């Protein structure tokens, strides 16, 4: 007869609560855990999606860095808008060459530094005199060493005030001042006096004291004896008068106080090294074609780095499915970035005529296929360079190469300048009617069928200047021009927008912090993760309540079994009694 129903005894073993001793061998803790885990599967899926999103975000951030570098490369080639921006335009950098008509290299006589934007030109220079310093050096005097007194006591100097320099700055000499102390006192005020002191050891026990002006040129001269009666007990072995430099610059005699002259031609500094003594120097200022080439190479490399990245991020395996590493295969931002950039890279620049280059292929930049390697799959349409063709184009038609990349604007009125532009510009030649008297501001262009006139937005900019802006939806959309005059005029203008400028504008829009495609996708992922996190928290609350109910149900089952066992025991006792 059955006298007891048992599912086992519950006890703790390690980190598990186990029911043993019964025929079923139930593990309640595992059973509850398994049921809870099954209940929590939706949360697990969401956690996996958050992990996937983290990988996608990381790859998007990497893409943003690549695009940012590409944007920087394009910026140097595009002629950035604004004033005093020559240093940001690689086509404005200059190289200099100094040749001589003698066997001595021109660089022995002169070096020239050219700032970005300096005029391309040639100059003829002769250096007839170098600027010198004013120098007074005492006769030799006997002292044991530089820490020996030289003031009073029969020394070379008497105590009192030593006056130095064209500014007549006084230095107090105290009795028993050593040679080193005197030098230190003089040099402590050299910024005011313009005179530097040096202790010169001629031989053991014999010294001289030198006074040399910091600046060169006639203005640095002063008479040390006239300024210091009774101070010196020693004469001067060296007495050099400072003189200005003198050069013949394209036949004009020029004198300056320095051997570094930066005010003859804007943007050029001439560093005089040696008198030419009859040698004539030919100075040539040219566009720095090598630096421009490096800028173009950086542009190519930046594009290729982005293109190969997109190839890795969309790689398909042999099974026809994206590889695990292709985390951006469904990225709208990546597809949009690649599509928009490629459209600009393949563009023919409008408005370029006369057989000048108007596309990348014209200067040796073409597309080819990358065969692939261990890291990157086979990739179509990466840029390759014919260096000989680019070198030739830079050497023979530098301005033409510039126009392939730059935004270029010219007009017949110097008072009209471009302030900013977008890729909305869709015409290369137009005229402006600026009628401030009647407040009429219009542009006229030929659309192929005849003249078309459009209105411009106008905004005041100070008392004598206005800003004219192309309206949205017109061929001058986004073009802002500053007219800095009050006259009523008609201005004829020509604008070409090179590939570098259009690529920059495209990337700038894609990388916009709030509205750019990359930022929008990253923000969307962040929002999605927040929703997933909230859903996971709600699921975990449901699972926890589910776990509690299971524990209560198993506890009730245990109680019911205990009651059943008590009843069975009573029945068993009665049966035994009846049998007796």
What does this structure look like?
This protein has helices at residues 28-39, 41-77, 179-188, 190-193, 224-227, 289-312, 332-345, 387-396, 398-405, 499-510, 517-579; strands at residues 8-13, 16-21, 94-100, 110-114, 121-129, 133-138, 141-142, 160-164, 169-173, 195-203, 206-216, 236-240, 245-249, 252-256, 260-261, 268-272, 281-287, 365-370, 379-385, 407-411, 416-420, 429-435, 440-446, 451-460, 466-470, 480-483, 489-497. The longest helix is centred in the C-terminal third of the chain and has 63 residues, at 517-579. Strands 20-27-22-23-24-25-26-21 form an 8-stranded antiparallel β-sheet. The chain folds into 5 domains: 8-39 and 529-579, no CATH class; 94-131 and 245-287, no CATH class; 133-240; 290-404, no CATH class; 409-497, no CATH class. The model is unreliable at 4-25 (pLDDT under 50). α2 runs antiparallel to α10 (499-510). By secondary structure, it is of the alpha+beta class. β23 and β24 form a beta hairpin.
- β-strand percent reads 25-35%
Question: What's the count of strands?
Answer: 27
- Uncertain segments: 4-25
Question: What shape does the CA trace take?
Answer: extended
The radius of gyration over CA amounts to: 43 Å
How far apart, in Å, are the first and last alpha carbons?
A: 16 Å
Number of helices: 11
Q: What is the helix fraction of residues, given as a range? A: 25-40%
Structure class: alpha+beta
Quick check: average pLDDT? 91
How many domains? The number is 5
Q: Oligomer, anyone?
A: single chain
Strand order of the largest sheet: 20-27-22-23-24-25-26-21
The major pleated sheet works out as: 8 strands, antiparallel
């Amino acid at each position: 007869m059955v006298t007891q129903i048992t599912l086992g005894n519950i006890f703790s073993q390690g980190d598990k609560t186990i029911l043993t001793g019964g025929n079923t061998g139930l593990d309640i803790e595992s059973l509850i855990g398994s049921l809870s885990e099954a209940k929590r599967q939706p949360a697990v899926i969401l956690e996996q999606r958050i992990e996937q999103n983290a990988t996608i975000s990381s790859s998007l951030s990497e893409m943003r860095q690549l695009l940012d570098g590409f944007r920087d490369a394009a910026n140097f080639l595009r002629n950035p808008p604004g004033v005093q921006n020559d240093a940001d335009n690689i086509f404005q950098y200059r190289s200099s060459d100094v040749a001589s008509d003698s066997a001595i290299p021109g660089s022995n006589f002169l070096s020239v530094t050219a700032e970005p934007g300096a005029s391309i030109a040639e100059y003829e220079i002769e250096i007839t005199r170098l600027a010198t310093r004013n120098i007074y050096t005492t006769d030799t005097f006997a002292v044991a060493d530089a820490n020996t007194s030289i003031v009073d006591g029969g020394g070379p100097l008497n105590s009192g005030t030593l006056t130095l320099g064209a500014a007549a700055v006084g230095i107090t000499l105290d009795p028993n001042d050593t040679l080193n102390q005197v030098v230190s006192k003089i040099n402590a005020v050299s910024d005011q006096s313009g005179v530097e002191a040096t202790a010169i050891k001629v031989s053991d026990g014999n010294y001289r004291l030198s006074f040399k002006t910091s600046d060169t040129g006639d203005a640095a001269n002063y008479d040390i004896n006239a300024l210091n009666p009774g101070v010196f007990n020693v004469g001067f072995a060296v007495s050099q008068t400072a003189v200005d430099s003198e050069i013949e610059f394209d036949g004009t005699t020029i004198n300056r106080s320095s051997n570094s002259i930066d005010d003859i031609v804007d943007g050029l500094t001439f560093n005089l090294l040696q008198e030419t003594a009859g040698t004539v120097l030919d100075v040539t200022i040219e566009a720095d074609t090598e630096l421009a080439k490096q800028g173009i190479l950086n542009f190519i490399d930046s594009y290729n780095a982005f293109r190969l990245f997109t190839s890795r991020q969309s790689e398909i395996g042999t099974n026809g499915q994206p590889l695990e590493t292709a985390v951006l295969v469904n990225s709208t931002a990546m597809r949009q970035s690649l599509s928009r950039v490629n459209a600009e890279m393949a563009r023919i620049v409008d408005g370029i005529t006369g057989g000048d280059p108007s596309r990348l292929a014209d200067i040796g930049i073409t597309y080819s296929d990358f065969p692939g390697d261990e890291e990157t799959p086979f990739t179509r349409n990466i840029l390759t360079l014919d260096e000989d063709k680019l070198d030739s184009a830079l050497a023979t038609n530098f301005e033409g190469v510039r126009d392939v990349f730059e935004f270029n604007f010219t007009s017949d009125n110097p008072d009209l300048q471009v302030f900013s532009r977008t890729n909305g510009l869709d015409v290369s030649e137009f005229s402006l009617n600026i009628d401030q008297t009647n407040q009429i501001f219009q542009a006229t262009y030929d659309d192929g069928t005849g003249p078309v006139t459009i209105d411009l937005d106008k905004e005041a900019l100070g008392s004598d200047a206005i800003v004219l802006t192309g309206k949205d939806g017109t061929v001058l959309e986004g073009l802002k021009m500053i007219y800095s005059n009050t006259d009523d005029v008609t201005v004829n203008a020509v604008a070409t927008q090179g590939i570098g400028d259009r690529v920059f504008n495209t990337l700038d829009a894609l990388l916009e912090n709030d509205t750019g495609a990359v930022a929008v996708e990253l923000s969307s992922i962040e929002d999605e993760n927040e929703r997933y996190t909230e859903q996971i928290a709600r699921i975990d609350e449901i699972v926890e309540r589910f776990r509690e109910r299971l524990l209560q149900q198993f506890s009730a089952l245990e109680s019911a079994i205990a009651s059943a066992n008590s009843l069975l025991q009573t029945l068993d006792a009665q049966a035994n009694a009846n049998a007796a």
